[in-house]
Amino acid sequence: MKLFKSMTETESDNWNKSAILGFYTYMLILFIDQTYNLLFSSNLLSSSVIFWTGLLVAFGFQFILKLGTKNINKWHL
């Protein structure tokens, strides 16, 4: 019995692209926050804002790629 269905090659590629973008988003936001902290001795963003921003970017971009894939497949039929 499987708990999750297997991902297709396209779904796997879309998730890899989304996870990489989410990671780079985390790194950019952390860099901005740390630079602000060093310059002004206070945090610009809270850790929860940084956390949710990275997650929203990763899952949001995956959703956009998924919609794009569905639209392309629809036009090729």
TrEMBL record:
The chain crosses the membrane at residues 21-39, 45-65. It comes from the Bacteria. Keywords: Membrane, Transmembrane, Transmembrane helix. This is Uncharacterized protein. It comes from Oceanobacillus chungangensis. The lineage of its organism: Bacteria, Bacillati, Bacillota, Bacilli, Bacillales.
